[in-house]
Structures are given as structure tokens and as C-alpha cells.
Amino acid sequence: MTPHDSTLDPEDWSEVRRLGHELLDDLIDQLSTVGEGRAWTPVPPEVRARLEQPAASFPTDLPTVLDELRRDILPYATGNTHPRWFGWVHGTGTVEGALAELVAGFMNCNVGGRDHAAVHVERQVIRWLADLFGFPADSSGLLVSGTSVATIIGLAVARESAAPGEIRRGGVAAAPAPLVAYASDGAHVSVRKALELLGLGGDSLRRVPANPHALEKMIATDREAGLHPFCVVGTAGSVTTGAIDDLGALADICSRHGLWFHVDAAFGGALILSERLRPRLAGIERADSLAFDLHKWMHVPYDAGCVLVRDAELHRSTFSADRNYLSRFERGAGAGHPWFTDFGPELSRGFRALKVWVTLRTHGLDRLGAMVEKNCEQATWLAGRIKDSESFHLAAPTSLNIVCFQAEVPAGSRIDSDDLNREIVMRIQERGIAVPSSAEIDGRLCIRVAITNHRTRREDLKIFLAAIEEIRREIVEGSA
Ligand SMILES: Cc1ncc(COP(=O)(O)O)c(C=O)c1O
């Protein structure tokens, strides 16, 4: 073969086929027995050192690279596929979703636009999700990396609604007055970040106690001060405790005052899958924009989030741009207008929709909803055991899937409560038994268990309880 004919394809496809089959077998073996292993394993120094090597200018054969992958990468995953992962808010994923990722990798689609199956899959998924949340049939949406980006997009459309066309041309200086937004105390940090990135500044976010009267008063005061209230962000499932704002009351206020209503339902949005829990989200169907994750409690493998926007035309006009080489034809590969790039900042976009499509198709909405219900019941059970315990006490009520609690400091002990709880979290993680995380409530550190894990069983919670009891005893005795 002359250099002019060379490609990156293998010379021997049968060898790649054999290695691929072996790798897939190993991956399925590992995932099907994940609960028998450690919940988290730190990356050893020698592995870190290898992962800091500079890029090689020469090729390395695939068997060697796959051996390195098995040795240095596979054993040190985040841990969220394990049944005793309870940290932060991480979804578990599914094997079907992982297979979809493999297919997406083979297809190598660019879903920014053009006319091909992946575009239709994403449109179908967006329609399914819009229907699920009670959004109108002509609403728009986009799959993104997660709720943080979905929130930037939702709030960009909200900003555009304050002065359509003007802000795109002239920046925020073209707004009728300085724009301000409102969110409850439990709002996620990504809301503030979005406002910063949109040029409005972090101070444009007003924190309001979860009280509709306080919100209305603040809006009136800001208007009197010459500011331009433009948006209220409701939280459906706060990251610390799972608290849900009164979305119906917020929607009422927004329609009374002509404000944009954005909802952050990053993980709480999954309650929509359960007939029993769905009423807690009442009012979400009135949002102007909704940001939520598929990679959290809906168990699509990372990363997959979604933004839905009620007014598709405003959504499109916030992002669509001059075309030139992107001009659309009525037939051929360049057809299929509007393209997804018209609804967000990205032109090149991967085939995220496939893993969402496969997850929703293979499990169905009801089974995914049953997992959400199961996790809430598990959290209630765990909270009950903590309440009955002499070694621990609850730090906040458990209303959903999150249990926040603290270890008791024995009378007369000099140990600091924050130090004790932090040490429990770190030791149980380092031992690979389970992964809780932490949160601060009323200025004090607590152990936080967020169960968004379809693999968790009652037995896993019992193992977790026995381990924290034992570790607390060790630390208390060690400090005596
Ligand atoms: C309530 C809430 N909003 C936003 C986010 C950010 O979501 P993502 O990590 O998908 O960007 C999270 C993440 O945990 C969250 O819990």
C-alpha cells in the first residue's frame, strides 16, 4: 500500500473482531458482578504516573493498549455502578445503555444537523420527554451533557425573552434595565454559574426563602429600585436534602408578573415516572423551560441531560445563526431543517440520544419509575434506622431519597463533630465498603446518603449501617 492509500483502519479486521469480543466479555463479566467488588478504589501512585505520560508519536498495538486499559483504567472507575454508591447524585447506568454507547461509537454520528436517523431518534426522545412532563406538542428540546448546561440554555432563552433580538445584538447592556432572577435557598450552584456565564453576574441571582409571599415582595422592591426581574428558578429536588419548591405557586407568580419560569429538576424530575410520586412535581408542566438529567435517576449512562422549552420559536431564535456553509437544502443529506444546532451553542454533537432511546425502550417508563419508588422507600427505611440509633441522629427530614445524618459525639469526648463525620465518610470510602458523601446543614457537616441506585438492596443498607457503626466506634475509641 502506498502512503497515499493508507488509512487508520486495521490491516487485520479479524484480529480486531477477536479483541473486541474478548473486551466485551470482560466488561459484561465485570458489570454483572460489580457488587462483589469494592465500591471505590483509589488510583495508585504508579498508575497516576503512567496516566501522566506525554503522548507518543509512534503507534502502540491494540492488544497492548487494551491491556493497559484493563490494568490502569477499568479498576479505578468512579464507583457509581456499585450497589453501595450513595454519594453526591450519581445514576447507576444500565448494560443496555452501555451497549448503545458502543453502537453510537461505531456509527460516529454528528447530530448537530443534517438528515439521518440519529436526528430522528433525538427528536423522538425529546417528544417522549416533553409528553412525560406535560409540555405542549410544539415545544422544543435538546439533549446536552447535563443539567448545568441545560440550565445555561434555559436561562439564555429566558434572557432573550427579556428583550428579544436586542440582547443577542447588543449584549446585556441592551436590556431595558439590569436583569435579576430569583431562586430558593436550595437552588444548585449551576444556576448562579449560568447567570455568570450569561453576563448577568452572580449578584443578579436573588436568594428567596421558600415562601411565595417573600418572593412577590422582593420582585416589587426590585422593580421599584429600577431593576428588571425576568426569571424565577424553581428547584424540584434540592441537592442537599431533596426539597421541592412549590412549583404551582411559583408558576402563578410568574404568570402574574410576566416572568420566565425555569425549573431545575436535575434528579427530582425522575419522580414524573412514578404515578405515586408525580403529584409532588405539580406545576412543572407550566415551566417555560425545564432542565433535568437522564444520567442521574433515569440511569442513562453518562452523560445525558435535557432542556425542554415551551416556546420553540423563541428557543430557536436565541441560538440560530447565519448559515453560509450550513445552508439547508430541501433534499439530500443537508435537509431536515431545523437542525439541533439551531437550539443550542454546539454545532458538533454526539449521538447521546441513542442511549436514552435504548434505556427508555428496554426498560419502559414504569420500570424506571418503580426504581425511583424503591429508592425513596429505602431512604425512608434508612432514616428510620438512623432515628432509632444511639450512635447517629438525623440532620434533616427525609422526604425523598436523601438521608442526611450525623454521628453522635460521646459526652465528654474532645472530638469535633465535623471531624468525626468527615473521617467516617473518608474511611468507609477508602475501605471500598460504600460511598456516601457529605453536606453542610446549619453550618455543620453531615453524612449524606443519596440513593439514586437501581442496584441497591436492603442488604446493602444493612452493610452500610454496620460499617458506619463500627468506624464511629473505632474513631471514638481511638480519640479517647
Ligand atoms: C439540583 C441539581 N441541579 C443541577 C445539578 C447539576 O447537574 P449536572 O451535574 O448534570 O450538570 C445537580 C447535580 O447534582 C443537581 O443536583
Protein described:
The chain is an alpha/beta fold and 480 residues long. The protein has a domain of 241 residues: Type I PLP-dependent aspartate aminotransferase-like (Major domain) (Aspartate Aminotransferase, domain 2), CATH 3.40.640. Helix content is 42%, strand content 12%. The protein has 14 helices and 11 strands. The strands form 2 sheets. It has a 7-stranded mixed beta sheet, sandwiched between helices. The chain has a 4-stranded antiparallel beta sheet with strand order 8-9-11-10. Helix 4 packs antiparallel against helix 12 and helix 6 packs across helix 8. It is globular and about 70 Å long. Pyridoxal-5'-phosphate binds next to helix 6. The site of pyridoxal-5'-phosphate has 14 residues, from helix 6.
Quick rundown:
By secondary structure, this protein is of the alpha/beta class. The protein has helices at residues 13-32, 45-50, 62-73, 95-107, 117-132, 147-162, 166-170, 189-197, 212-224, 247-257, 312-319, 352-388, 417-430, 458-479; strands at 140-144, 179-184, 205-208, 228-235, 260-264, 289-293, 305-309, 392-394, 402-407, 437-441, 444-450. The protein has a domain at 110-350: Type I PLP-dependent aspartate aminotransferase-like (Major domain) (Aspartate Aminotransferase, domain 2, 3-Layer(aba) Sandwich), CATH 3.40.640.
